[in-house]
């Protein structure tokens, strides 16, 4: 006997924090997701995802969406904690480089594959210049200080998309164990 399919469509908008919380500032994406959950209530059209280090599995977070916000550390010049925003067109213009490990986020590859489906995905990447990628569960002071501003950029963008979150009546501290781990700065 066949069972009915219980799969539901994904929320039209995904906010995905990427990175490894065990590698200092690489935990930025996950930390911003924790800030967002602590400070705002999101409509059902928005799904917050702590994506970790998905590699090509990031495609699962992209599939079936109308809009995607990615939060991650970025390579490039700038001071630690400096925030940068990239739109889909800017990301599409970047060359897809060889992945160094299976944990590389594969953002460009996932977006290129999504384009093959013909969906015009609205994309925003909120990136931070890292100060340290050492093997510790902490964030450097400038990157930690950038988390509230990054969360505000995400909230502002969601408002432009027509799915604004509501500020929580009683916001809490971000529920992120790595922010309270021994040696956290």
In short:
The chain has 185 residues and is an alpha/beta fold.
Structural commentary:
With 185 residues, the chain is of the alpha/beta class. The chain has one domain: HybD-like (Rossmann fold). Helix content is 28%, strand content 19%. It has five helices and seven strands; from the N terminus they run βαββαββααβαβ. A five-stranded mixed sheet has the order 3-1-4-6-5. A two-stranded antiparallel sheet has the order 2-7. Helix 1 (28-39) crosses helix 5 (141-160). The longest helix has 20 residues, at 141-160. The radius of gyration is 16 Å and the shape is globular. The model is unreliable at 99-103 (pLDDT under 50).
């Amino acid at each position: 006997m066949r069972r009915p399919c219980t799969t539901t469509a994904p929320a039209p908008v995904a906010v995905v924090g990427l990175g490894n919380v065990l590698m200092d500032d690489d935990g930025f994406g996950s930390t911003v997701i924790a800030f967002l959950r602590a400070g705002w209530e999101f409509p059902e059209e928005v799904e917050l995802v702590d994506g970790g280090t998905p590699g090509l599995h990031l495609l699962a977070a992209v599939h079936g969406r109308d809009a995607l916000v990615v939060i991650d550390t970025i390579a490039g010049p700038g001071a630690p904690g400096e925030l940068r925003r990239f739109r889909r067109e800017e990301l599409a213009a970047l060359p897809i480089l060889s992945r160094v490990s299976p944990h590389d986020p594969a953002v460009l590859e996932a977006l290129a594959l999504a384009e093959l489906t013909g969906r015009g995905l609205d994309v925003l990447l909120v990136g931070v210049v890292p100060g340290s990628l050492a093997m510790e569960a902490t964030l450097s002071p400038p990157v930690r200080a950038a988390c509230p501003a990054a969360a505000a950029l995400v909230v502002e963008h969601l408002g432009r998309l027509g799915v604004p979150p509501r500020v929580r009546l009683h916001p809490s501290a971000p529920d992120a164990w790595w922010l309270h781990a021994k040696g956290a700065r």
